[in-house]
From TrEMBL:
This is Complex 1 LYR protein domain-containing protein. It holds the Pfam family Complex1_LYR. CDD domains: Complex1_LYR_LYRM9 (cd20269). It comes from Solanum chilense. InterPro entries: Complex1_LYR_dom, Complex1_LYR_LYRM9. It comes from the Eukaryota. Residues 9-61 form the Complex 1 LYR protein domain. Belongs to the complex I LYR family. LYRM9 subfamily.
Amino acid sequence: MILQEMQKAIGAYREVLRLVRRLPKDSRPYYAKYARENFVNYREIDSNDPNALQELLQRTYNHSLWVLKKYSVDQSAADRLKNICAD
């Protein structure tokens, strides 16, 4: 179970970095660093809370949509991330 959750989190991080590549060139370093910092900060979630990872993934997806909208990037670019976060 823990391995599945870890793979899911890593998959979400990978998709976020792919989405960062769609942003304007000057904003990519900021959002790549932001994603990395958040991934590191939240790598240890409460294992007693079965919803903790799902809540983080949902927050990841929602924030990604917000950033894509801010830079007028088609939100369908986040469909793969949505699939990861919705499972």
